[in-house]
Specification:
Rossmann fold
């Protein structure tokens, strides 16, 4: 059985810190997951069901703006999506029928995000906030409370999706470890599974229709077009990764269990790297952990300062590759497909 080793990109890496400070907690898991669909719309204390969708074509692509719902001069529904993947899905469904802004700018660390006065102001002036849910946006509840917007409605894009938890072994490199992104509600990275991404799009569609029934036809048409693209993407993953079923890979950013679960690839995370400078002993432990699982490839994420990872790659004689968790990138809704197809190609190359 072949094993693939993956390094995640965390906030300090995204800020391009030197390799002496590279070190976030890297966790991960073998996952089993079920799926379900549904929409959730609440107005700080109530729920509303939403109409079902019908299929018809539509397109959409427009970049995100900084949170500024007050700039809406066309009396359109004002929507704020929390971070990039949720923005991509929300903008795809809304098209030009609603004003959609993004709360956390692409490339900003979401797990440990602290809200700003600008975020509070944005939520005080918007009609809807769309979140990923599953504990991803830990800052959001307090930010909504501070916004004091009694009319604000929340669409939980992951409503009805059964999360997976952390089940795998962890091997520690060094005595001190960075903050781990523990998710009490389960792993939140559902958007990286095209099938679960479809459920998120459906939840967003239903929530927008419930809040703005006059534009129901537009939301349904836009969603149908995007859902078809997601279905096509899923078929590509199935066809091209089918020959690699039952392979295992090791990840340090616990972002890909749903993707692995969907296509019968086993994700195992075993190494934590300390936040301080790695000692020779730390490096040896990391290398030993990789050898233990007979790693065939190392995965980092785009935009990471890879000096340390390049060094490990050379020591292990293993090629370093990149997988994208889509927490940074372009705001065109089509970016999801560009990034995911790049991930597919990377997985193919790694498992050959």
């Amino acid at each position: 059985m072949e094993t693939v080793f993956s390094f995640g990109a965390f906030s300090m890496m995204r800020r391009n810190l030197s390799c002496s400070t590279i070190a976030k907690f890297f966790a991960a898991s073998l996952f089993v997951s079920g799926t379900a669909s549904g929409a959730f719309l609440t107005s700080c204390g109530g729920t509303s069901t939403s109409p079902q969708a019908q299929s018809s074509p539509a397109t959409n692509t427009s970049p995100a703006a900084s949170p500024s719902p007050a700039a809406n001069t066309e009396n359109r529904l004002r929507v704020v999506a929390t971070f990039l993947p949720i923005y991509l899905f929300t903008k795809a469904v809304a098209g030009d029928a609603a004003q959609v802004d993004i709360l956390i700018q692409p490339g900003t660390e979401v797990h440990d995000y602290q809200s700003t006065p600008a975020d509070v102001k944005a939520l005080s002036e918007t009609d809807i906030v769309v979140k990923n849910g599953l504990g991803m946006e830990e800052f959001l509840d307090s930010t909504i409370k501070s916004a004091q917007n009694p009319k604000l409605k929340i669409i939980d894009a992951s409503q009805g999706i059964k999360p997976v938890g952390e089940l795998s072994q962890v091997v520690s490199a060094g005595k001190e470890h960075s903050h781990s992104h523990d998710h009490a509600e389960g792993n939140p990275h559902v958007w990286l599974d095209p099938v679960l991404a479809k459920e998120q799009v459906e939840n967003i569609r239903d929530g927008l229709i419930a809040a703005d029934p006059e534009n129901k036809a537009k939301y349904e048409a836009n969603a149908a077009a995007y859902l078809q693209q997601l279905a096509d993407l899923n078929k590509e993953f199935e066809q091209r990764l089918g020959q690699f079923r039952d392979r295992t890979f090791i990840t340090f950013h616990d972002a890909f269990p749903y993707l692995a679960q969907r296509y019968n690839l086993k994700q195992v995370a075993v190494v934590e790297i300390p936040e301080d400078q790695l000692s020779p002993g730390d490096v040896k432990e990391t290398i030993d952990a990789v050898k233990q699982f007979q790693a065939k490839a190392l995965f980092s994420e785009p935009g990471v300062d890879n000096k340390l990872l390049d060094g490990l790659s050379k020591d292990l004689n293993v090629k370093l590759r990149s997988l994208d968790s889509l927490e940074a990138g372009q705001t065109d809704p089509q970016h999801y497909f560009t990034a995911m197809r790049a991930n597919l190609q990377t997985l193919e190359e790694a498992f050959k």
